[in-house]
Amino acid sequence: ELNLVWLTTGEGEMLKSDVISNVTLQELRDNSIINTVPLLPISAQAGTLNDFIVSIKNIEVERIISPIKSADYAITVTGDSMAPEFPNGSRILIKKINENSFIEWGKVYVLDTYNGIVIKILNEAADKPGHLLCTSINQDQKRYAPFTVPKSDVIGVYKVMLCMSLK
């Protein structure tokens, strides 16, 4: 019953009218009224984030509405190491950054590594040059102890721009 134009832009009537109800989601996307990003099927496949990005160019993946135009992708958070800010099942919008240019230490990023994908707070590893220190938000240090990742094992770094979760 909700008017997608009103929902995404705040313009028009809140409920669908006869004119608006004939507009499809694809038409809204084509006219840049709404922005969508691919939801990467991280839990459905093994490999690196880069593998997913290359493969989505050849297959149709689910797309979700993004309130942030500059977001590149969405992924689903699994596990509770980043709870409560990023609960299990929430979706995050991410943007690829140039990790050689600037990383804002102490912020949450998604690391794409040869061993898989992690969402963590990043800092420089003071005692290990050439490594990143990955820390969880969850304070259960026995389960989620900080760890380091060699920068040479990092394929890509993605800034977390938004977390969406059901309450």
Describe this structure in words.
This protein is elongated. Mean pLDDT is 82; it is low at 43-47. The protein is built from three helices and nine strands; from the N terminus they run ααβαββββββββ. The protein has helices at residues 4-9, 25-30, 49-56; strands at 36-38, 63-65, 73-76, 91-97, 108-113, 116-124, 131-135, 147-150, 154-164.
Features:
167 residues; two-stranded antiparallel ribbon; 12% helix
Short synopsis of the structure:
By secondary structure, the chain is mainly β. Helix content is 12%, strand content 31%. The strands form two sheets. It has a seven-stranded antiparallel beta sheet with strand order 3-4-9-5-6-7-8, with no helix packed on it. The protein has a two-stranded antiparallel sheet with strand order 1-2.
